[in-house]
C-alpha cells in the first residue's frame, strides 16, 4: 500500500528514532606474526610423537570513547623429543566500535564476541604458517570464549572478595 497522503501530499516521514546500541567490526588485521623452525631441516627426520603447547592471550585497549582494539595472541610450540620443531606466534587484532552500551555489556562483548570474531583469522594464519614451514597441516580446535570469560569473572569476584576481606582485617588508622 502507498504512503498515506494529506491533502494530496505525502505524509512527512516519521522523525528518525535515536539509533540504538551499536556493535560493529571496524577493522581486522594482523598485528604481529612469527614462525621459527630452529632445527630444520634435521627435525623432519626425527621420529617420535610431537608435543604441542598452546598459549592463548587476549589484550584490550581503549582507542577512544567508542572504539576498542582487541588483540588475540596465539603461540603454538611443537617439540619432538627435546628439540623444538616450530614456534608460531600470531597476534590477530581488530578494532571494534561500541556505542550506546552499558559498561557490563561492553565487558561481555570484549571478552566473548570480539575474540570469537578474531579466532578464525588467527586459526587460519597459524595453519598456513605451519604448512608453509614444511610441517603437516594443523587446525586449532574451537575455543569456548564464553567459558573463558565466565572463569575470568569468577576470578575477578574472588579477588574482589579477598581484597574486601583484607581491607576489613586491616587495623583502622590512628588507633593505638
Secondary structure: elements and pairs:
Layout: E1 5-6, E2 9-10, E3 22-36, E4 50-64, E5 67-80, E6 83-99, H1 103-132, H2 145-169
Helix pairs in contact: 1-2
Would you state the CATH class? Alpha Beta
Major β-sheet annotation: 4 strands, antiparallel
Number of domains: 1
CATH architecture: Roll
- The side-by-side strand order for the widest beta sheet comes to 3-6-5-4
Q: State mean pLDDT (0 to 100 scale).
A: 88
CATH superfamily: SecB-like
Termini separation (Å)? 83 Å
pLDDT below 50 for ≥5 consecutive residues: which ranges? 1-6
According to CATH, the fold-level topology is: Bacterial Protein-export protein SecB
Q: Give the helix tally.
A: 2
Report helical residue fraction: 25-40%
Structural class: alpha+beta
Beta-sheet strand percentage?
35-45%
Over all CA atoms, what is the radius of gyration? 25 Å
DSSP strand count: 6
Keywords, please?
176 residues; alpha+beta; Bacterial Protein-export protein SecB; four-stranded antiparallel beta sheet; two-stranded antiparallel ribbon; 2 helices; 31% helix; 37% strand; disordered N terminus
